[in-house]
Structure formats: C-alpha cells, structure tokens
Amino acid sequence: xxxxxxxxxxxxxxxxxxxxxxxxxxxxxxxxxxxxxxxxxxxxxxxxxxxxxxxxxxxxxxxxxxxxxxxxxxxxxxxxxxxxxxxxxxxxxxxxxxxxxxxxxxxxxxxxxxxxxxxxxxxxxxxxxxxxxxxxxxxxxxxxxxxxxxxxxxxxxxxxxxxxxxxxxxxxxxxxxxxxxxxxxxxxxxxxxxx
Length: 195
What we know:
43% of the residues lie in helices and 23% in strands. By secondary structure, it is an alpha/beta fold. It has a 6-stranded parallel sheet, sandwiched between helices. β6, α8 and β7 form a beta-alpha-beta unit. α4 packs parallel to α6 (87-96). The chain is globular. The N and C termini lie far apart (46 Å).
C-alpha cells in the first residue's frame, strides 16, 4: 500500500534519503537548507540514523565523507555560501571518491530571500566534475535522494542535489516508496589498489 504525505521540498528530500537506507546526516544551519537536517534529525531514532549539527560546513562534510568511506550512506546539508566553507573537502572528495552513497544537499537562494549573495552551486560542481541532480517538484526531491545515493555508489563519487528556496519551502503531496535497509559497515580498503 502506497503512503502519501504532504511535505516541504526539504522534508521530501530528507524522507527520500531516510527511506533509501541513510545511516548519517550532518549539517550546518542555513536557510533554505535547514529543514532537511531538522526533519532527518527528528526521525533519527525511528530510522537508526546518526544525525548531528556540526561546527561548520567543512566539519559536516568531513563527517559525512568519513561515514561514506565506511560503506554507509551519508548526507551533508548546507546552503550555497556554506559550500564555500566546505570547499577543501568538497573538491578533494571528487578525487578520493566515496564508498557508501554520499549526497551533498546544497540549497541555493536565487533572489536572496535569506542570504547575503546569490551563488550558483552548479559552477563548483562542474569545476569538481561532480554530478548534480536538480529536482523540479516535491516528488522528484523524494525520488532523487534515493537515485542520488545509488548513483554515488555506482560511480564511487559524491553526488550533489541542488535545491532552490521556492522548492525547499513549499509543500506538496509526495508518494513514498519502499524503505531500504542501511548498508553494512565495511572495513579495510575499497579495492586491491588501496592495500
């Protein structure tokens, strides 16, 4: 039986990641991305997810990347200017790769509703040669979270999901899919090259 919920775009994305077997969510508050983390944190006990606010976006990115290195699915959330703070691990992760699915949720703020500038995170993703998913509606927010984690594991690199303010903070009906189990923790090198 399918279940429908009325969710913010941010909440739909968080629910999609939770249902896709997310093990950890890390972030630093900044509108329009804050509600992604808050929703995941509110559901953390129910889903067995490690969810903590971090000291800044760089720390959050590194915490999520470390979980991914262990084979678990992880997500980090921030607004567009926070990606500047996380630039070092962001750029390096495009080279080091990921093991468990790794989602970078960046919420851009066209029109500067709650930000000091406008910035297009796709430019940094292109520079890093990182895939970017851009949902058009709330159902795609939900679906792309799952697809992004699967794509990350298939390609072995992080995947960015770019949200914008109007999608993040509006509500619509979302049809939920099946809930997947979390990945097992892997120890040791990813492949024989790393031994």
